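ESCALATION

Customer reports they have been waiting on this structure for their group meeting. Please prioritize. Original submission:
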Amino acid sequence: MNKFEFKNLVKGLKNSLKEKIFFKDLRKEVETGANGTQDYVVKKGVNKDTVATTRQ
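Update from on-call: job pushed to the front of the queue and completed.
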């Protein structure tokens, strides 16, 4: 392996490491249940505007 190949190898590893760090830092955490996506709200009937549960 000559100097040119070694420099390219080091440069490639450095860029891939930098890219991995950017992806790790820029990733956002997802909020569970945001905007009512987790529970179902009853829209009609006696129990209107209550959250339905899986218990029966």
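Sent to customer with the following note: The chain has a mean pLDDT of 81.
Escalation resolved.
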